[in-house]
Q: What sequence folds into this?
């Protein structure tokens, strides 16, 4: 359904649409039902260059723009945000290493992303949630590197990740480390709350680190800079997160439109009722607006501008809109919208799950508010 203006290159969008229709759509329901990591799809997207699309070409990346990658995320997520969320955790770990890692670390791991390396961000701990300033996971200096002990919880993509970006407390603050699954002392298990009702790309896992020894260069950047590194990385990824939510919103609207244009009630096609038309007119206008905000944030990233505010606005708006669109889609489709054989329940579950995950609306509003306070107090408001 060609309702939406192309906001990235026509070629990128056409390739993403074709891939999503041919390879993602046929397995979308199965992935959600079985709660499995879409490893086959992730290997295929690596071959297409999407797993390392924005990575510098010196590390076997594509050297493409964030707006292009945002478009890929949006298009594949029209059919399954499960693939989108799997790709975003790959991007986050990759981006953190590229921006802050020592050259030896970059040379060792970054070229592996183009070959299909799977990865995850391991930030969360039981009892801490979004507050990652103080952690139970500790890293102590050794003669040849670092020894890490602790446990991370609720790790997205963790069931299949080969590499983890881990936050741990060190003597001089919170620091970021690269840890791989095959290192001695690394293990994972499914905790009590492993399953979620949406974005089901495999059960979330707990990552256990028992006297894990890592070389000195596996400390990402400078000791004590982990919080800053993570915040910058998350800000970089929120434009992609917004693209995922926009894909869900589009899917809900498009499928609902098709149904109400065929459904008859009270002697008329449902889409001919003005009240139904108003629902869709409002949703499409809001999706258009959220898409412009999202791609403007991508352009800010590509231009090297500060994106803390724009990327937070994009995810906040797109996340809420996806939930709204899915909710209205169920409503206008009536009993049809509630059936297990239809995708509307999946849209609603995925939308709400991502409205919370990856930066809740409240956290995002705090980020936007901080930028406003800074602007007004510096005389730039």
A:
């Amino acid at each position: 359904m060609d309702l939406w203006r192309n906001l990235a290159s026509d070629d990128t969008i056409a390739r993403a649409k074709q891939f999503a229709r041919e390879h993602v759509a046929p397995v979308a329901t199965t992935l959600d039902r079985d709660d499995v990591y879409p490893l086959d799809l992730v290997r295929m997207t690596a071959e297409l260059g999407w797993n390392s699309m924005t990575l510098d070409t010196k590390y076997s990346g594509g050297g493409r723009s964030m707006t292009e990658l945002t478009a890929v995320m949006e298009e594949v997520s029209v059919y399954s945000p499960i693939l989108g969320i799997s790709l975003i955790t790959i991007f986050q770990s990759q981006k953190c290493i590229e921006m802050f890692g020592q050259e030896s670390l970059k040379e060792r791991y970054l070229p592996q992303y183009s070959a299909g390396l799977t990865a995850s961000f391991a930030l969360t701990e039981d009892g801490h949630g979004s507050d990652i300033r103080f952690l139970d996971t500790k890293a102590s200096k050794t003669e040849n590197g670092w020894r890490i002990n602790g446990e991370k919880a609720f790790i997205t993509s963790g069931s299949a990740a080969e590499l983890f970006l881990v936050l741990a407390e060190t003597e001089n603050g919170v620091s970021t480390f690269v840890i791989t699954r095959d290192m001695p002392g690394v293990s994972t298990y499914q905790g009590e709350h492993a399953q979620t009702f949406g974005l089901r790309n495999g059960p979330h896992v707990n990552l256990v680190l028992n006297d894990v020894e890592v070389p000195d260069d596996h400390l990402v950047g400078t000791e004590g800079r982990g919080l800053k590194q993570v915040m910058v990385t998350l800000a970089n990824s929120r434009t992609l997160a917004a693209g995922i939510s926009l894909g869900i919103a589009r899917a809900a609207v498009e499928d609902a439109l098709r149904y109400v244009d065929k459904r008859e009630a009270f002697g008329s096609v449902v889409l001919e009722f003005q009240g139904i038309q108003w629902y869709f007119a409002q949703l499409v206008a809001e999706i258009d607006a959220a898409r412009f905000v999202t791609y403007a944030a991508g352009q800010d990233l590509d231009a090297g501008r500060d994106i803390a505010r724009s990327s937070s606005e994009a995810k906040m708006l797109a996340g809420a809109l996806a939930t709204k669109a899915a909710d209205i889609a169920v409503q206008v489709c009536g009993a049809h919208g509630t059936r297990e054989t239809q995708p509307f329940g999946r849209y609603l579950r995925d939308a709400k799950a991502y409205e919370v995950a990856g930066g809740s609306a409240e956290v995002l509003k705090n980020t936007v508010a901080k930028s406003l306070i800074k602007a007004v107090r510096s005389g730039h408001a």
